């Protein structure tokens, strides 16, 4: 299984590549980021729940993934559920899956007043990835950047209160919904700052703020008003903030671009060409090979075709383009498929980009 490392080699390290790209200098290939989260556990032969409880295993799994694929970012994660556990929320503990929320810590309006932000500072679900991030920066910092995937305010509010209840509060008790999302914003900031001080780059994930759940007006008032402030806070440490919202964000693209994010990470249901036309002069685009039907269930041919399609749509995005998967890879994604993905980036995304290579 672990022989499935990529066959092709690079001429530059990810740091050299990203640095030259930002300065408008030539690079060797398109930057490439398969989102390797929980699937990394199997690269070091441990269960996902073991990895998530150990800084050493969390770091080792990311280091192993980098040794195998030499992709352009390693990462750790504090999702919205993890943040909710700081306040008494409880997650499931599946052996080989991402945990789901079991008990939301806020059941009544009064519960919010009892929560203390300082509880985040000793939360194991934040301390483990923080210690892992320090190891990654120490071990790989000379070559590749470490990213922090952090839950955005709307999704944190959803983990604190429960999605259905949050949506109900928005209609019936918008004043409380705002107080809750304001508290969630402060949670995202407080949880992430220790990472950013270590030189880790933020990628905000706000799956619940998807266009499938909120209309434009509600998204502006209850999601983006807070995301903008989060990004502004993060920019004090890291100028290039990435924003990822799962699902269909076609109708939210301009609001995402207005958030201050330097780069939008788009789900595979969003058309990259349409995104390029709509917001490509304002933001870098990142995406969006289908993580399920192509990466998990597909084969070499399907992966190469999907990479070529993404390149054909977004290679000339005015503010730049990073080839990536549309969301986190499923845990059972074959390791060979990740290797095919990064090799396809090297073949079709060879510099200088030429449409003849991916048409
Ligand atoms: Zn996603």
Describe the structure.
One of its GO terms (molecular function) is uroporphyrinogen decarboxylase activity. By secondary structure, the chain is an alpha/beta fold. The protein has a domain at about 35-260: TIM Barrel, CATH 3.20.20.210. Helix content is about 45%, strand content about 10%. The strands form two sheets. The protein has an eight-stranded parallel beta sheet with strand order 1-10-9-8-7-6-5-2. Helix 11 links the parallel strand 7 (about 240-245) and strand 8 (about 265). The chain is globular, with a radius of gyration of 19 Å. The two termini are about 30 Å apart. The model has no long low-confidence stretch (mean pLDDT about 95). Zinc ion (ZN) binds near residues 207, 244, 246 and 327.
Main attributes of the structure:
TIM Barrel, 10 strands, 8-stranded parallel beta sheet, alpha/beta, about 350 residues, two-stranded antiparallel sheet, binds zinc ion
Q: What is the third-level CATH name, the topology of the domain at 33-261?
A: TIM Barrel
SS-based structural class?
alpha/beta
Low-confidence blocks of residues: none
Q: What is the string of SSEs from the N terminus onward?
A: HEHHEHEEHHEHHHEHEHEHEHHEH
Radius of gyration based on Cα positions: 19 Å
Helical proportion? 40-55%
Distance between the termini: 32 Å
How many β-strand stretches?
10
What order do the strands of the largest sheet run in, or round the barrel if closed? 1-10-9-8-7-6-5-2
Give the averaged pLDDT, no decimals. Answer: 95
Discrete helix count: 15
Taken as a percent bin, the fraction of beta residues is 5-15%
Ligand set: zinc ion
**What would you say the CATH architecture of the domain at 33-261 is?**
Alpha-Beta Barrel
Largest sheet: 8 strands, parallel
CATH class of the domain at 33-261: Alpha Beta
């Amino acid at each position: 299984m672990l022989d499935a490392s990529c066959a092709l080699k690079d001429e530059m390290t990810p740091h050299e590549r990203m640095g030259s790209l930002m300065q408008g200098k030539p690079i060797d290939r398109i930057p490439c980021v398969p989102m390797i989260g929980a699937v990394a556990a199997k690269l070091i032969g441990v269960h996902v729940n073991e990895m998530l409880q150990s800084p050493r295993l969390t770091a080792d799994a990311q280091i192993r993934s980098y040794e195998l694929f030499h992709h352009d970012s390693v990462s750790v994660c504090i999702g919205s559920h993890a943040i909710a556990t700081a306040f008494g929320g409880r997650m499931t503990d599946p052996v080989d899956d991402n945990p789901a929320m079991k008990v939301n810590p806020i059941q009544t309006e009064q519960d919010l007043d009892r929560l203390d932000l300082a509880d985040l500072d000793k939360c194991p679900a934040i301390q483990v990835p923080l210690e892992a991030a320090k190891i990654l920066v120490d071990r790989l910092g000379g070559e590749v950047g470490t990213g922090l995937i952090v839950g955005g305010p709307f999704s944190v509010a959803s983990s604190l209160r429960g999605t259905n209840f949050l949506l109900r509060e928005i209609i019936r008790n918008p004043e409380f919904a705002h107080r809750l999302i304001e508290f969630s914003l402060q949670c995202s900031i407080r949880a992430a700052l220790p990472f950013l001080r270590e030189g880790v780059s933020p990628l905000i994930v706000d799956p619940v703020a998807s266009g499938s759940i909120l209309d434009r007006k509600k998204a502006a008032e209850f999601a983006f008003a807070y995301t903008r402030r989060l990004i502004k806070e993060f920019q004090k440490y890291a100028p290039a903030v990435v924003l990822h919202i799962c699902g269909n964000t076609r109708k939210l693209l301009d609001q995402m671009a207005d958030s201050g994010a330097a780069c939008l990470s788009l789900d595979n249901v969003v058309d990259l060409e349409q995104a390029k036309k709509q917001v490509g002069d304002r933001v870098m685009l990142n995406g969006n090979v289908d993580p399920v039907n192509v990466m998990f269930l597909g084969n070499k041919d399907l992966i190469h075709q999907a990479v070529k399609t993404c390149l054909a749509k977004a290679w000339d995005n005015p503010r730049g383009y990073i080839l990536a998967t549309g969301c986190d890879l499923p845990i059972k994604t074959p390791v060979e498929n990740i290797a095919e993905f990064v090799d396809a980036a090297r073949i079709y995304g060879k510099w200088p980009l030429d449409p003849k290579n991916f048409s």
